[in-house]
Automatic annotation (TrEMBL):
Biased composition (Gly residues): 715-728, 742-759
Domain of life: Bacteria
Catalytic activity: [GlcNAc-(1->4)-Mur2Ac(oyl-L-Ala-gamma-D-Glu-L-Lys-D-Ala-D-Ala)](n)-di-trans,octa-cis-undecaprenyl diphosphate + beta-D-GlcNAc-(1->4)-Mur2Ac(oyl-L-Ala-gamma-D-Glu-L-Lys-D-Ala-D-Ala)-di-trans,octa-cis-undecaprenyl diphosphate = [GlcNAc-(1->4)-Mur2Ac(oyl-L-Ala-gamma-D-Glu-L-Lys-D-Ala-D-Ala)](n+1)-di-trans,octa-cis-undecaprenyl diphosphate + di-trans,octa-cis-undecaprenyl diphosphate + H(+); Preferential cleavage: (Ac)2-L-Lys-D-Ala-|-D-Ala. Also transpeptidation of peptidyl-alanyl moieties that are N-acyl substituents of D-alanine
Organism: Streptomyces graminofaciens
Record's protein name: Transglycosylase
Length: 759
């Protein structure tokens, strides 16, 4: 076993080995790295010698990862995201002081030698041999660039990073070979430019532009001599010379760089001495990375954009390929987010629901006919600090896109059942007995020619005993009568309903298949707010369903050039006839103006339509509504499906019970009012509906689809009934088209009037 000499130097054996290493490496350098693939040198290991004589394209123009900027539809910045905080700049955009400082401290003979500084190699090897360790390096800037490119391509994979930096003779010789070729093909200025753009400067800053902005909040072209010296000094050891965490050590290193700049003649000794006296002058900008930095509460919209990119095959055949492009960055993504709509959504949510409430809310707005997502927000902000009620779960979207398992939409699903029935030929004047309580009808046809059978006598009820038919479709929709819609689905079958839902893009949030059960009519399948908003946009666009989109365009900067990337396009298809959609619009217009959704109305100057929804146990409440030019959905509830919304405080207001018309409705009204401010107010195309059949009226009705309390059918409810005409159905506030028949109701005792309301 070789031993050191008593004086601490190398043994004879070690000296021989060191001399041999020096000779081999020096000979290789002098021979221009014209070496065969000799296994003894480590060149053939793991195929590392393949393509050895060819310079990889990524060395000429490294695919540097950069920050990605996400913009709203008007071109204003929403957020920046990156795996490497880097902004690539041309050499002319970098301060001459910075160029001189990095050369002076890292490779003072950069402009004098070739790719390999033979003097430096021999000097370093000699010094290291004497010290018995590695006290001095000899890599030129060009060699460092080659290694940095390999590290950059390794990304965050520790195995690949280790391979890129492994201390083997084979890697070193390959590095020298490529360095020679780079010098021949790129020249000194381009090499320096690439080096300054790829190098890590600590504090998450990659490249000189990001470093300059991080430490001094200025562009690299404006760096002063002492600032340039500080940044140049960091490169050797970003952690040791970090000026934020160790300003004393960083100052010593800066002064060393200034001294070296004076020694090589870049600045005078007087300039160096003056610069050494200056304070570090830091003006640190905190890293702003990720959707947590998004403005206007758009963190979840930002995250949805990322999910779209990583999941849509248009950006790459595999998820790995898409992730590589995303991590490489340099993207400018213009989205569909309308800043006015987004601001309105967040303002409305903030006014009605606190982030600390036991329940949360989420709201989404889309544009009918285009599928563009205009806004997306929620009461619990984007982030990872649970103590601040933050979350990264997007409550507006499906599980596969960063959301949760969804929430039962309740009676907001009923218009889809009605659309399936009307599209199949049912008259909107169809009347059902709609008793207060009934067994689920059986058998009911389902897809595949089979039947659903009520084997255990399962029953359902309306909200209270006074809710008794017969009702027409108009009344049943306005009052959200459960038994009416179950009788309807029994007549038409379940399959037409699930098929209509599919045409409208309605799917379960957890990705499971839609259940073949008549309770689907009552909204028992979990959905997301985005799904419901986009489904109702189908009604608004007179039956045309358009897939939702969040991205308008993407450009990617690669080196000094930019290119456009293909983006997903909305695909529109006819889900139902115009007449069916117009009929639903007419029905749902009445819900907002005179039914369970009156508190969501936008006023007489802005035609709107919509539907309330409340689930069993009041675990979720909804309002989904639309105008001809915007559709939106609001959900309120406990994301964990544990807290019932009874005797609960929301937004500082205490509610005995929550239902769709009372909490989600006003949130929807306020968010849509702001989003639509200054926008055109087009009308719906309404259709005449058949006259209602006379039936039992009601004097006891909640604003909820299934609620109790406030009477919507007269000026007073309960046992005394309402005014004449009130107990049948409320008189509409809009003018009836020619050919419509307006009926009259008569008040009755116990809240039950004899009369058909209106026709």
């Amino acid at each position: 076993m070789p031993k050191k000499r008593s004086g601490g130097g190398l043994s004879a054996t070690q000296q021989a080995a060191k001399f041999l290493g020096v000779s081999v490496l020096a000979g290789a350098v002098m021979a221009g790295i014209a070496l065969p693939a000799v296994g003894a040198l480590g060149l053939a290991a793991k195929g590392s010698v393949e393509g050895f004589d060819e310079l990889p394209a990524n060395l000429k123009q490294p695919p540097l990862s950069q920050r990605t900027t996400i913009l709203d539809s008007k071109g204003d910045q929403i957020a920046t995201v990156y795996s490497r905080d880097r902004t690539v700049v041309d050499l002319k955009e970098i301060s001459p002081y910075m160029q001189k400082a990095i050369v002076a401290i890292e490779d003072a003979r950069f402009y004098e030698h070739g790719a390999v500084d033979l003097k430096g190699v021999l000097r370093a090897l000699n010094k290291n041999a004497r010290s018995g360790g590695v006290s001095q390096g000899a890599s030129t800037l060009t060699q460092q660039l080659v290694k940095n490119v390999a590290v950059e391509e390794a990304g965050d994979d520790p195995t690949l990073v280790a391979q890129a930096t492994q201390q083997t003779l084979g890697r070193k010789i390959r590095e020298l070979k490529y360095a020679i070729q780079l010098e021949e093909e790129l020249g000194k200025k381009k090499i320096l430019e690439n080096y300054l753009n790829i190098t890590f400067f600590g504090q998450q800053a990659y490249g000189i532009e990001a470093a300059s902005r991080r430490y001094f909040s200025k562009s690299a072209k404006d760096l002063k001599v002492q600032e340039a010296a500080l940044l140049a000094g960091i490169v050797q050891s970003p952690s040791r010379y970090d000026p934020v965490n160790d300003p004393k050590e960083a100052t010593k290193r800066r002064n060393t760089v200034l001294q070296r700049m004076a020694e090589v003649g870049d600045i005078s000794r007087a300039e160096a001495d003056k610069a050494k006296e200056k304070p570090l002058g830091l003006k640190v900008s905190k890293p702003k990375n990720g959707c947590i930095t998004a403005v206007k509460g758009a963190g979840f919209f930002c995250d949805y954009v990322r999910e779209v990119f990583l999941n849509d095959p248009v950006f790459g055949k595999t998820k790995k390929a898409r992730a590589k492009i995303w991590n490489q960055g340099g993207l400018t993504i213009q989205t569909t987010m309308d800043p006015k709509a987004q601001k309105s959504v967040q303002a409305s949510i903030k006014n009605h629901v606190n982030r600390t409430d036991e329940v949360a809310t989420a709201g989404t707005i889309v544009e009918p006919g285009t599928g563009k997502i205009l806004a997306m927000g929620q009461s619990r902000p984007y982030g990872v600090d649970v103590k601040k009620n933050q979350t990264t779960i997007n409550l507006s979207v499906d599980d596969s896109m960063g959301g949760g398992a969804g929430y039962q939409p309740g009676s907001t699903f009923k218009p889809i059942v009605a659309a399936a029935a009307i599209e199949g030929g049912m008259s909107p004047g169809k009347s059902y007995s709609a008793p207060y309580k009934m067994e689920y009808p059986s058998p009911i046809s389902v897809c595949g020619g089979k039947n659903w059978v009520n084997t255990d006598g399962t029953t359902l009820t309306n909200e209270n005993e006074t809710e008794v038919g017969p009702y027409s479709m108009r009344k049943a929709t306005a009052l959200s009568v459960n038994t009416y819609f179950v009788q309807m689905i029994a007549d038409i079958g379940i399959c037409p309903v699930t098929e209509m839902a599919g045409k409208m893009g309605v799917e379960r949030a957890d990705g499971a298949k839609m259940g073949q059960n008549p309770s689907i009519a009552l909204g028992t399948q979990e959905m997301s707010p985005l799904t419901m908003a986009n489904a109702y946009a189908t009604f608004a666009s007179r039956g045309m369903y358009c897939t939702p989109i969040a991205i308008e365009s993407i450009t990617q900067r690669v080196g000094e050039k930019s290119k456009s990337l293909q983006v997903p396009k909305s695909t529109c298809s006819r889900a139902m006839s115009e007449n069916t959609a117009d009929t639903i619009n007419t029905l749902l217009k009445g819900v907002v103006e005179d039914g369970t959704g009156t508190e969501a109305g936008l006023g007489s100057g802005r035609p709107s339509a919509g539907k309330t929804g409340t689930t069993d146990g009041r675990y979720a409440a909804w309002f989904v509504g639309y105008t001809p030019n915007m559709a939106g959905a609001v959900w309120v509830g406990d994301p964990a499906h544990e807290r019932r919304m009874v005797n609960i405080s929301i937004g500082g207001v205490t509610y005995a019970k929550v239902f769709g018309g009372k909490v989600p409705g006003p949130i929807w009204r306020d968010m849509m009012s702001g989003a639509l401010a200054g926008e055109p107010a087009p009308n719906f195309t309404l259709v005449p509906l058949p006259s209602d059949n006379p039936g039992r009226g009601r004097g006891d009705r909640d604003d909820d689809d299934n609620g109790n309390g406030d009477d919507n059918n007269g000026n007073s409810g309960g046992t005394t009934g309402g005014d004449a005409g009130g107990t049948g159905f409320p008189t509409p506030s809009f003018s009836w088209p020619d050919g419509w028949i307006q009926g009259q109701g008569n008040g009755g005792n116990n809240g039950n009037g004899n009369g058909g309301g209106f026709g």
